[in-house]
Amino acid sequence: MVKVGVVGATGYTGFELLKLFARHAEIELVFASSESYAGQRFSQVYPCPYDIELVDSASAPLGEADVVFLCTPHGASAGFARQALAAGARVVDLSADFRLRDQATFEQWYGAHHAPELLPQAVYGLTEVYRAQVANADLVANPGCYPTGPLLALLPLLRAGLVLGEKLIIDAKSGVSGAGAKPSATTHFVSVNENFSAYNVGHKHRHTPEIEQELTAFRGQPMRAVFTPHLLPVNRGILSSIYVDVPVSVGPAEVLALWQQAYGDEPFVHVLPAGSLATLAHVTFTNRCALSVASAGAPGELILITAIDNLLKGASGQALQNMNVMFGLPETMGLV
């Protein structure tokens, strides 16, 4: 059995983790912590059958866990990661604190980093890409929800040298749960229902440097992402449209063949057949990423459309997938 602890268990990602643990045959939950609800039972916070008593995060018994999941805000995770590693636990961090390899880039987007000495040992947890590194990692930085689908779609094309130019346009739409459990003026029901809006337009969203970091690593030269996120009036899911210039000899059939070669044996990447386009219905409540491609109407212009569940493949599901890899368990255990 793998003994696990969750810091920040009462946010959306923490709640999703506990639901996944309930169907995992090799997990023993040793603690779940909360800043706001310490001393209460989890079932008092959410109407659910999980009856573990929540502890204060500062007093969480990190050393009792084999692995600690950090579902804490950006900036707060770094300190917990340092403590958990010192206590002998491995760490899967669902915040952004270790996703960016360069400290200066991190501080440009998020402010001061509170454990920069840990950055060199952090592994970016896009499981299908960095599986070998994840298996041996003590600290895994779970990817952001928005980057996951586009990166999985683009990697085979970039490695094959098929992406022309140094700029990509990514147009993405997310369900409201992507904004977290704490409500704001823009995420209340009356603001979102029967509405559709863009936000953080103009190279401002914090997932932008993460996308650019990985695109650059895949291609081996600097890449720029024109990334525009939107808020959908749905609970969960992310649909991304990526506009790509390729050689005129490359069409949807060639991209599908590349994806099949790269992901044919991957349990959580679903390559849709020619003529089908990814939708949220393909992936919600699963850990799957759906990939699809269409012509943009002219030779050398393609549109890649991807879909994931932002709370699962975009957060808690991928975190559990990484944990399975870290402990040599079947990668699909506890996941669909």
CATH architecture of the largest domain: 2-Layer Sandwich
What fraction of residues sit in β-strands? 15-25%
Provide mean pLDDT, rounded: 93
H and E string:
EHEHEHEHEHEHEHEHEEHEEEH
Low-confidence stretches: none
CATH class categorisation of the largest domain:
Alpha Beta
Q: What's the structural domain tally?
A: 2
List the total number of helices.
Answer: 10
Biggest sheet: strand arrangement? 8-9-7-10-13-12-11
- Biggest β-sheet description: 7 strands, mixed
Radius of gyration: 19 Å
Describe the protein's architecture and organization.
This protein is of the alpha/beta class and 336 residues long. It has 2 domains: 2-142 and 315-326, Rossmann fold (3-Layer(aba) Sandwich); 146-308, Dihydrodipicolinate Reductase, domain 2, CATH 3.30.360.10. The protein contains 10 helices and 13 strands. It has helices spanning 12-21, 42-45, 77-86, 103-110, 127-135, 145-159, 189-192, 208-219, 252-263, 316-326, and strands at 2-7, 27-33, 67-70, 90-93, 123-124, 139-141, 167-174, 197-198, 224-231, 238-245, 269-271, 289-295, 301-308. It is globular and about 60 Å long. The two termini are 20 Å apart. 48% of the residues are buried. The mean pLDDT is 93.
Short summary:
The chain has helices spanning 12-21, 42-45, 77-86, 103-110, 127-135, 145-159, 189-192, 208-219, 252-263, 316-326; strands at 2-7, 27-33, 67-70, 90-93, 123-124, 139-141, 167-174, 197-198, 224-231, 238-245, 269-271, 289-295, 301-308.
